[in-house]
Amino acid sequence: MIVSIIGIGLIGGSMGIALKESGFANHIIGVDRDPDNLDKALRRRLIDEAAPLEVAISRSEVVVLAVPVNAIEDLLPRVLDLIGSQVVLDVGSTKRNILQRIRLHPQRRQYVATHPMAGTEFSGPEAALPGLFSGKCCVFCDVEASSPDAVAVVKWLYEALGMQIVYLGGGEHDVHTAYVSHISHISSFALALTVLKKEEDEKRIFELASGGFGSTVRLAKSSPQMWIPIFEQNRDNVLDVLDEHINTLAQFRSLLIKKDFKTFHQLIEQSNQIKKILP
To answer: Model-level pTM greater than 0.85?
Structure first.
């Protein structure tokens, strides 16, 4: 396979490494609007060559869109305009708007909407990791609108990356990711801002920070260029989840005010049930 990856950041770069190592692809073409990203990707051997969009698509069998979701929404119709028999997939964290945008495109069946649930708080080609996807889950959305052959190729690609595949509708996907991913990032951003504000007065606060604090605010290092479009596209679902989260925090606050530590203990025990889902 010759695979073109549009967007050579953490996800695109990691995919380039893994697709070559797995044997799925024998040649990776990188496309990126930032020449520095392409230069870094070439030096790190994430890609075999860099090319303009039209050239890369014409020479490829599979085209991967690994850019922020707002860019996918604008770029995907253009990519579909340029393809013949190529298979196109995206790796965006939201799906409803993207799917709606290309719903009536004549090449819609050559496109498979996917979301590999993998990543780190870092960005750019220098953050790419060869084993990023192994053992993780990838969501396929609205596969009934894609051709069986295209779905088979994309399934083969993700199995080569070592991922487990689940199938959801686009709207269902956006609701679930609001709960398991998007609210986690907002909470981390908020906690980091809270502590940074306190740190203005207490300069030594970070000397006391333990592993628990580090793991909780790790996501606050994530790129706003990636996350603002996600929050914008999944705004309604994120607001619903955020309202639930704020209500739960308010409940904890009320229990502390009342010194009702018995109920507080019960709620923490209930939260411990997450161990059954996340060992």
So the answer is: yes
| Tens digits of pLDDT across the chain (279 residues) | 999 999 999 999 999 999 999 999 999 999 999 999 999 999 999 999 999 999 999 999 999 999 999 999 999 999 999 999 999 999 999 999 999 999 999 999 999 999 999 988 889 999 999 899 999 999 999 999 999 999 999 999 999 999 999 999 999 999 999 998 999 999 999 988 888 877 666 666 666 666 677 777 888 899 999 999 999 999 999 999 999 999 999 999 999 999 999 999 999 999 999 888 776
- What angle is formed at CA 226 by the lines to CA 28 and CA 191, rounded to 5 degrees? 135
For the record, the structure tokens of 6 come out as 């549009």
Domains of the chain and CATH, by start: 2-169 (3.40.50.720), 173-276 (1.10.3660.10)
Instruction: Please tell me the distance from the alpha carbon of residue 213 to that of residue 201, in angstroms, as a whole number.
Output: 19
